[in-house]
Amino acid sequence: MGDAASEPEILFEQRGCLGLVTLNRPKALNALTYGMIIALERQLDAWSGDGSISVVAIQGAGDKAFAAGGDIRALYDAGEGGRTGEKNFRFFADEYRVNTKIKRYPKPYVALMDGIVMGGGVGVSIHGSLRIATERTVFAMPETGIGLFPDVGGSYFLSRLKGELGMWLALTGSRLKGQECAQAGIADGFVPSDALPRVIEMLSVDGNLGHDPEDVAPGSIFYWGEGEHRFRPDADSCFSGASVEDVLEGLGAAQTEWAHAQRKAILTKSPSSTRIAFRQIREGASLDFEDCMRLEYRLARYCMTTPDFYEGVRAVILDKDNAPKWLPPSLTEASEEYVARAFEPLGEEELAFP
Predict the structure, then answer these.
(1) Helix, strand, or coil (residue 133)
(2) Of 19, 69, 82, 120, catalytic
(3) Per-residue confidence (pLDDT) for residue 210, from 0 to 100
(4) What distance in Å separates the CA atoms of residue 147 and residue 273, rounded to the nearest whole number?
(5) Is 60 exceeded by the pLDDT of residue 224?
(6) Residue of 143, 188, 308, 311 with catalytic role
(7) CA 42, CA 39: separation in Å to the nearest integer?
């Protein structure tokens, strides 16, 4: 169900040559349900063969979020607290196939990343051909804090950010604001939120924004990822190690307030998820997109049938005590050997693409 009985969870409309998608669960911060994912896939298929549509754009309803993630509570309930995690395999398989469809979409796909952009919301935005942030954008991949890993293509896009920014974001769940997203390569450009109606209007008229930033918001647009992210030198210095232990050691040796905060953040996350995320980002750097999604599907199946995801959801979302009891409780126990099973090929059950 949506936020109101009369309101669908996801809206589709044609404005001129533009196919406009609106994620329509503002009271739930537009978190993606399984039904929204399936509806989006069907509409993208329809628009791909529609000659009257030359560009697709996606936005979130309300002024707080583009999409704050997937419907985590639904995954918890479907898995019955970890007793039947297999029920969620289909959710991840279909979500990852839609992420891949967006990445390979034959028409321009413009993501208007206004407000919170996390988890599943990243998957339906960052793989587009043009990603636009605003002053209200808050981007993060905080999955290791609930016993998951930075999925929806994180293996691919995080491993390809400048320097070690991707590893920093993956292990700490740190948040980036609008212009920082453009500097880090998460977004291609930045416009003030009140310019978004003009952006949509321009797309509906001729299918593009032109090449002159002045066309969108005279005198106030920050475009095409100018500058370097302020934390890149620190991230490059501290997150370039060959293991999680190397990263923690580097952060400890740095003896700065920033490094201390990053180290503290990592140590609050699921040890298993932290170990998985590190290996995932390193391996993803040498894989093509589809192979990254196949890797993530293996990891998702593992997380749905092990304790930390359900304990993380309990602690962060249900009971809100923010005191998860991870199993295993330490990186030493959640060793490379312990998480190796998460990366094992699935044979005939590997994620397949049409």
Answers:
(1) strand
(2) 120
(3) 56
(4) 6
(5) no
(6) 143
(7) 5
At 194, phi and psi to the nearest 5? -75, -5
| Number of other residues whose CB lies within 10 A of the CB of residue 349 | 12
**55: which strand partners?**
18
**pLDDT above 80: residue 212:** no
- 133 forms bridges with which residues in the sheet? 113, 190
Query: Which CATH code fits 10-346?
Result: 3.90.226.10
Q: For the purposes of burial, counting CB atoms within 10 Å of the CB of 202, is it exposed (0-12), middle (13-18) or buried (19 or more)? A: middle
0.90 exceeded by pTM: yes
The residue type of 295 is L
Length of the chain: 354
Distance of alpha carbon 25 from the chain centroid: 18
Cα–chain center distance at 10? 19
Complete edge-to-edge strand list for the sheet that includes strand 176-177 = 65-67, 116-118, 138-140, 176-177
User: Phi/psi at 337 (nearest 5 deg)?
Assistant: -65, -35
pLDDT in tens, 69-78: 999 999 999 9
Task: DSSP for 5-54, please give it.
Answer: TTS-SEEEEEETTEEEEEE--GGGTTPBPHHHHHHHHHHHHHHHT-TT--
Catalytic residue among 114, 151, 188, 234: 151
Name beta bridge partners: 70.
32
Rounded-to-integer distance, Cα 182 and Cα 228, Å:
9
d(CA 93, CA 77): 18
* Helices 244-254, 257-268: inter-axial angle, 10-degree rounding: 150
Reply yes or no on whether 70 is catalytic.
yes
Indicate which residue of 2, 19, 69, 70 is catalytic: 70
Task: Give pLDDT tens digits for 6-25.
Answer: 789 999 999 999 999 999 99
pLDDT at 5: 54
pLDDT at 209: 67
Residue with tokens 């290996």: 279
Beta bridge partners of 139: 117, 176
225 catalytic, yes or no? no
| CA atoms within 13 A of residue 173's CA, in its CB half-sphere | 19
Strands (E), the chain: 10-15, 18-23, 55-60, 65-67, 109-113, 116-118, 130-133, 138-140, 176-177, 189-190, 222-223
